[in-house]
Amino acid sequence: MAVLTERRLRVGDRVVTLLHGPAGWGEWSPLPGYPADPETCRRAAEEAATAGFPSPCRDRVPVNALVDGPFVVEEIREYPAVKVKVRGAGDVGLVAAVRDAVGPSVGLRADANGAWDVDTAVHVIGMLARYDLEYVEQPVATIDDLARVRRRVSVPVAADECVRSTADAQRVRALAAADVLVLKQQPLGGVRAALAVADAAALPAVVSSMMETSVGLAAGLALAAALPELPYACGLATLGALAGDVTRDPLVPTHGALTVRAVAPDPALLDRYQDDSR
Fold it and tell me: Do residues 17 and 6 lie in contact, with contact meaning Cβ atoms separated by under 8 Å?
């Protein structure tokens, strides 16, 4: 077994463990309160450090902007798509404002993070339908409820947090519970495991992040690059959600896309964020 070097960090309020091995760097950084098995996330980091990533099909990945409240129009117009966090009917106005700001040519999607029951989801999605959404992401918590919602709405539905294995993906497919699958490589156990989940679901896939440093985002980009088809912009432009980064050459988008590449942390930044309390 390959010997791995481990660096334990704290970047702002985020706990991050980086692993270094013969293939490069991997990141282990499960989000508190987010549905992800920590040991599965650890396997993703070990894969990146020991096995690297599959061969890419593309070297650039389009990404979406994220809106979770007041926004600056100029900052989201350069993206091919925008995702809006929605908590209920009160956020329909925010979706309307974003659509008005970006115009009809930019993809628009809404994410409820599984917060609604079936009837609430059907009601709010009905209000959102007029804004020409690409999809509504995880409007309800379970696969069964996702299938119930999908049968009652006209807007495409995406599955995210309810899919954590190939068995989950197969159930989504069997129930026709979703139109789109959102993939995060950490909670799925790495890039190769995520590709297997995508294959089992047989749905168009969108790759998203867990608000990682550039090391973790590089794994997400490797997943997006390895998918045979990538019809949607991905949720990987999230580095701004962190208080810092571990590299001097961070993975930030230009003209609405990220370049697929390896990331190596800067030793001085590793020392800056070293968390000796752990």
Answer: yes
Which residue out of 16, 20, 184, 221 is catalytically annotated?
184
Taking only the tens of pLDDT, the chain with its 278 residues reads 678 999 999 999 999 999 999 999 999 999 988 889 999 999 999 999 999 999 999 999 999 999 999 999 999 999 999 999 999 999 999 999 999 999 999 999 999 999 999 999 999 999 999 999 999 999 999 999 999 999 999 999 999 999 999 999 999 999 999 999 999 999 999 999 999 999 999 999 999 999 999 999 999 999 999 999 999 999 999 999 999 999 999 999 999 999 999 999 999 999 999 998 86
Token reading at 166: 């190939």
Among residues 20, 42, 83, 148, the one annotated as catalytic is 83
Strand, helix or coil for residue 135: strand
* Amino acid, res. 195: L
What's the pTM value of the predicted model, to 2 decimals?
0.96
Q: Which helix (H) or strand (E) holds 24?
A: strand 24-28
Domain extents for the chain?
A: 53-264
Q: Cα–Cα distances in Å, from 123 out to 46, 47, 60, 100, 126?
A: 43, 42, 37, 22, 5
The answer to whether domain 53-264 has CATH 3.40.50.720 is no
For residue 85, indicate whether it is catalytic.
Answer: no
